[in-house]
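Private note to self, pasted from the team thread so I don't lose it. Backbone tokens:
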């Protein structure tokens, strides 16, 4: 059984689960109709019922009936102790198993490295996972190695006290050197793979500042003040400056990177057991830095 904790009030159950799990709303409705979704330990009545901050929404899906196989997948471990780990995730690595991705994920790799010494707060299919990065987004992700660490980290994410800084190369140049993007985000009604800015979506806030400008691109830093699916990619595209090499949101593919040039570069949080302030930084991957080198040498302004 997978459990997800709601962090806002008045959101529809099916919308909340769709955003948090990437399951389709029609599939979620089937799970609800068959009694496989619980809100606060009580079977959900309908897809349109609302959930509020602190509600525990649990569900059972068919992928969870399969054993999660430990796989020897190389990991760049930035930090680890008996309670947490911080991983510099490589491009192309899906965070947890799901439909079409039951192996070859970060969870499979974590199971190999740590065995049963991972949290199960979100169910076996998400062992150790407190938050996510997109498949082709690189960089730092925090892992919980026991349920106490998981609960306390989840609380920090809910309270928005975890600082997360990303770096990205964008198409074109942002008009302002810094700013705040505040546009609601929800599922794109025409394409289930995408998110979109929409009035009835969930509140989303992103801060940005431009670090370097080039003839046809800019290099920017983003700070997430909320944690919506594809948030930076959607917000950047909403300004008509999508993340480069991100065709899903209209980004140019003129560079040779194998995925969007978006990197989770820096995280700050409080250690969930010791209470110590933790801070980690990971440099952009090789294909990302190669693009920056090219832009600095050939297209500087």
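Design output:
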């Amino acid at each position: 059984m997978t459990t997800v904790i709601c962090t806002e009030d008045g959101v529809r159950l099916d919308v909340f689960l769709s955003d948090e799990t990437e399951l389709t709303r029609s599939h979620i409705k089937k799970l609800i109709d068959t009694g496989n979704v619980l809100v606060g330990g009580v079977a959900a009545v309908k897809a349109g019922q609302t959930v509020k901050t602190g509600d525990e929404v649990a569900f059972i899906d068919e992928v969870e009936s399969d054993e999660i196989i430990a796989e020897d997948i190389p990991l760049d471990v930035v930090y680890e102790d008996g309670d947490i780990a911080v991983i510099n995730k490589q491009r192309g690595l899906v965070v947890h198993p799901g439909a079409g991705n039951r192996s070859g994920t970060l969870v499979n790799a974590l199971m190999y490295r740590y065995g049963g010494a991972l949290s199960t707060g979100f169910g076996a299919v998400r062992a150790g996972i407190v938050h996510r990065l997109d498949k082709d987004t690189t960089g730092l992700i925090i892992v919980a190695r026991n349920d106490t660490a998981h609960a306390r980290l989840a609380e920090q994410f809910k309270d928005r006290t975890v600082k997360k800084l990303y770096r990205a190369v964008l198409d074109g140049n942002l008009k302002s050197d810094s700013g705040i993007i505040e546009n609601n985000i929800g599922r794109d009604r025409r394409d289930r793979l995408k998110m979109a800015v929409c009035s009835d979506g969930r509140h989303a806030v992103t801060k940005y500042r431009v670090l370097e400008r080039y003839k046809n691109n800019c290099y920017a830093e983003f700070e997430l003040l909320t944690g919506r699916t594809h948030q930076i990619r959607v917000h950047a595209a909403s300004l008509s400056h999508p993340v480069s090499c991100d065709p899903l949101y209209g980004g140019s593919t003129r560079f040779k990177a194998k995925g969007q040039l978006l990197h989770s570069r820096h995280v700050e949080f409080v250690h969930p057991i010791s209470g110590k302030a933790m801070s980690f930084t990971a440099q952009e991957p090789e294909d990302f830095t190669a693009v920056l080198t090219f832009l600095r040498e050939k297209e500087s302004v």
